[in-house]
Design goal:
The protein is an alpha/beta fold and 765 residues long. Bound molecules: 1,4-dihydronicotinamide adenine dinucleotide (NAI).
Length: 765
């Protein structure tokens, strides 16, 4: 049976349907987005297009989506029909009855319901419909939340599950977990339990909102928005409604007690203080004089919003030095004697016990429970990973001491005297065969290493340089490992990938040293650093074997320059790429300006055509420090070439990069330096600086930005050549360095670098 996905129909152009349609478009799938009538569908789609963060990779992707009335749907022709209409049984059943009559022989039908029993949705349908039916529970926002739960009904065929899983994983880049058809499936079930234990602790316990957020955020491996900021974003009304729906479907008295809201939450609901969409919830942003704004926090005793007091607790300070990452901190908290520890046991501890008790009803194995919580709620560790990190016996003893666990009490798998659920260190959320870097480390294939990067042997003659410094900034150590990796791959292998296991490929060159040398006036030393950077970047291109950068997340400045010179790039769809040097008062001088100039000249339709529009575009891209919002956008900006690959799923990125190396390795011809780069001379410089002048006069850019803009224009025009001519690569690289060095001498540039190093933000001085 064909696994291709060419066309899809999404029914229901609301919050979820419209965004799911957008993400299908991102994946190159033609979508018909339907609603009760054409106007409603069009309006829903328009609303989605205005959302931030953007559900679409680029505005052009919108052309993949047509909207229409449900009566216009060609249910027979679609590969996949996704139902995302109102969360009510009857309308959904009526819709499926209609689809049952009209669907094609192989059409798969799925429902995005978050709480209705899927079995009841297929009741009365034909056997063939049921075989092709499955739940696909996306999370909001679907482009950015990786988890999709697949929920088969009894009749769903294995082939249907396999096809949908493949589409979701490979085409849409989602992280899939198969769940049982139980109320709220896995992630929302456990997540809701966790949330309500915290709400109850707030109602009755000693801690205020800010302290609880401090105890339920990154300290225990959760997102920064922790508990209350998360609710303010999703809406207290939504959270309590989902809880009510859940309670209706369970007879567990413990859950009925847990999900009964206390007087504080009831008071907030009564006042409609339900979060951001109401302008206030647990927090409220208050505008002050002169455009400033302050975030206030709810004081439930007086029902007013009061200034926040920084959370200062010795227990939290001590945890900062705790070894073992989130696992170590959770263990210390869970087993401690402080009030904060008692709070953690009353909340997270209870949820862990509850999960251990119910998991068999909601998931096929404990791995899927851990995966669902990682991917759906951004937990760094799933519940069973946490239990294992603490140790079953120690955890049980601590809960017993609090009277939270009777005898005999250890639920299910926790009993039996074991101390962990799994062999320690054995759990991997993702398929092991896709974890190229971690796999090489598991097999102890680290060839060479320093504090910034390591050379790994990933097998089959493919070596990898793994970046692993803070934000993977690129300094001398990184360059050394890149050189070592290239040498090794040339000597013994067939190719090299440059990659990271982190969330960001790299924030760019490490500017700490540049700043220090600039402050000391050590220009020769800066010149040597930039030369070394340029040399290494060029060696990626000139290597005798293909060198592929496998990029994901932030890929800025020097990291973009590396990618511009790799044999090819494999980019995760979520790649944020840009030459942002202007933000730190500099210009790209690691071959980036040169390469953008060269590529611009190559885009001319003929050798005699005017290069200005193309150079102008490169100039603006660098001058405004434009960062791509996705890999396809990076392609539109000229950072990625047509032969460069895009992986929809971040987890597949490194395996895809390895395949790209293999495809290029046989008969590989190294890249070559362009010998004749056309430059426009004074005319080009005049045209580019006119833009700078106009932008400056209109107040769109500041004094220093204008200075940097003029330097950039000077390099892109070929420096002091008397007229349009052709120059060599090394000539342009000299110009890059010259401009870079002169900017390093500017106090405003030094101030920008210092500010960025300190705050991670850019200073517009
Ligand atoms: P919504 O209320 O934003 O949108 C529903 C859309 O369906 C509306 O545009 C409505 O006009 C349309 N509709 C209603 N009846 C219809 C019918 N018979 N035929 C065609 N269109 C019809 O709802 P939302 O939030 O997008 O939810 C849709 C589904 O996704 C629900 O089953 C919900 O439980 C589920 N879900 C929602 C999530 C969320 O965060 N909002 C997350 C995960 C799942």
């Amino acid at each position: 049976m064909s696994k291709t996905l060419r066309s899809a129909i999404v029914i229901g152009a609301g919050t979820m349907g419209a965004q799911i349609a957008a993400h299908l478009a991102n994946a190159g799938v033609a979508v018909h987005l339907l609603d009760v009538d054409a106007a409603t569908a069009a309006a829903g789609w328009k609303r989605a297009l205005a959302l931030k963060p953007d559900p679409l990779f680029t505005p052009t992707h919108a052309t993949m989506v047509r909207t229409g009335a449900i009566d216009e749907g060609d249910f027979g022709g679609a590969d996949w029909i996704i139902e995302a209409i109102v969360e009510r049984l009857e309308p959904k059943r009526a819709l499926f009855e209609r689809i049952d009559r009209q669907r094609g022989e192989t059409t798969i039908v799925s429902s995005n319901t978050s709480g209705l029993p899927l079995a009841s949705l297929v009741e009365g349908r034909t056997e063939d419909f049921a075989r092709h039916f499955v739940g696909t529970h996306f999370f909001n926002p679907p482009r950015y939340m990786p988890l999709v739960e697949i929920i088969p009904v009894e009749a769903t065929s294995a082939d249907t599950v396999a096809r949908v899983r493949h589409w979701l994983d490979v085409r849409l880049g989602r992280s899939v977990v198969v769940a049982k058809d139980s109320p709220n499936f896995i992630a929302n079930h456990i997540g809701l339990h966790g949330l309500f234990t915290v709400l109850q602790a707030w109602e009755t316990g000693p801690f205020d909102i800010d302290t609880i957020d401090a105890l339920t955020g990154p300290v225990i491996g959760r997102p920064k928005s922790a508990t209350f900021r998360t609710i303010d974003i999703t809406g207290l009304d939504v959270a309590t409604q989902v809880a009510r729906n859940f309670v209706e479907r369970t007879s567990d008295p413990e859950l009925h007690r847990l999900f009964t809201v206390g007087p504080r939450i009831a008071g907030m609901l009564e006042r409609q203080w339900i979060g951001e969409k109401a302008g206030q919830g647990f927090f409220k942003r208050e505008k002050g004089p002169g455009g400033t704004s302050e975030i206030l926090v709810l004081d439930p005793a007086t029902w007013t919003y009061v200034p926040r007091v920084p959370v200062q607790r010795p227990v939290l300070d001590a945890l900062r030095d705790q070894r073992g990452g989130a696992a170590g901190r959770i263990k210390a908290l869970m087993l401690g004697t402080s009030a904060e520890s008692a709070f953690t046991r009353a909340t997270l501890g209870e949820t862990l016990l509850y999960t251990a008790r119910v998991w068999q009803h909601i998931a096929r194995d404990i791995d899927d429970v851990d995966r669902a919580m990682r991917w759906g709620f951004g937990w760094e560790l799933g519940p069973f990973e946490i239990i294992d990190a603490i140790g079953i016996q120690a955890f049980a003893a601590a809960m017993r001491d609090d009277g939270r666990l009777g005898e005999p009490a250890l639920p299910n798998g926790l009993a039996g005297g074991r101390d962990t659920m799994r062999v320690p260190g054995s759990f991997r959320a993702d398929p092991v065969e896709l974890l190229v870097l971690a796999g090489a480390r598991d097999r102890q294939q680290v060839v060479e290493s320093n504090g910034a990067a390591s050379v790994l042997d990933t097998g089959d003659g493919i070596f990898a340089v793994e970046l692993h410094s803070k934000m993977n900034t690129i300094g001398g150590d990184t360059l050394a490992m890149l050189q070592a990796g290239i040498a090794r791959a040339e000597r013994e292998g067939v190719g090299l990938i440059v990659a990271t296991q982190g969330q960001a490929f790299s924030a760019g060159a490490n500017l700490m040293l540049v700043l220090m040398e600039a402050q000391d006036g050590e220009w020769e030393s800066i010149d040597a650093m930039v030369r070394a950077f340029q040399r290494t970047v060029l060696s990626l291109r000139d290597a005798q074997v293909p060198v592929i950068t496998a990029i994901n997340g932030l890929t800025l400045g020097g990291a973009t320059e590396m990618s511009l010179h790799a044999s090819a790039v494999q980019a995760a769809a979520e790649t944020y790429m840009g030459l942002v040097e202007v933000g730190v008062g500099l210009i790209p001088a690691g071959c980036g300006t040169k390469e953008m100039l060269w590529r611009a000249s190559q885009q001319r339709p003929s050798k005699h055509a005017d290069a200005l529009p193309f150079v102008q575009k490169a100039f603006e891209t660098m001058g405004f420090g434009v960062v791509s919002t996705s890999a396809p956008h990076a392609r539109a900006l000229g950072f990625l070439r047509h032969g460069d690959g895009i992986s929809m799923h971040r987890t597949r990125l490194h395996a895809d990069a390895r395949e790209l190396v293999q495809a290029r390795a046989a008969g590989y011809v190294p890249g070559r330096a362009p010998t004749a780069i056309p430059v426009g001379g004074p005319d080009m410089r005049a045209a580019l600086t006119l833009g700078v002048h106009l932008a400056h006069r209109a107040g769109r850019i500041g004094d220093h930005d204008a200075t940097i803009g003029r330097k950039l224009a000077w390099v892109l025009a070929g420096g002091d050549v008397p007229h349009a001519t052709e120059v060599t690569e090394s000539y342009v690289l000299d110009l890059e360095r010259e401009a870079f060095l002169s900017l390093c001498g500017e106090p405003k540039t030094q101030a920008r670098i210092a500010h960025t190093l300190k705050t991670g933000k850019t200073l517009r001085n």
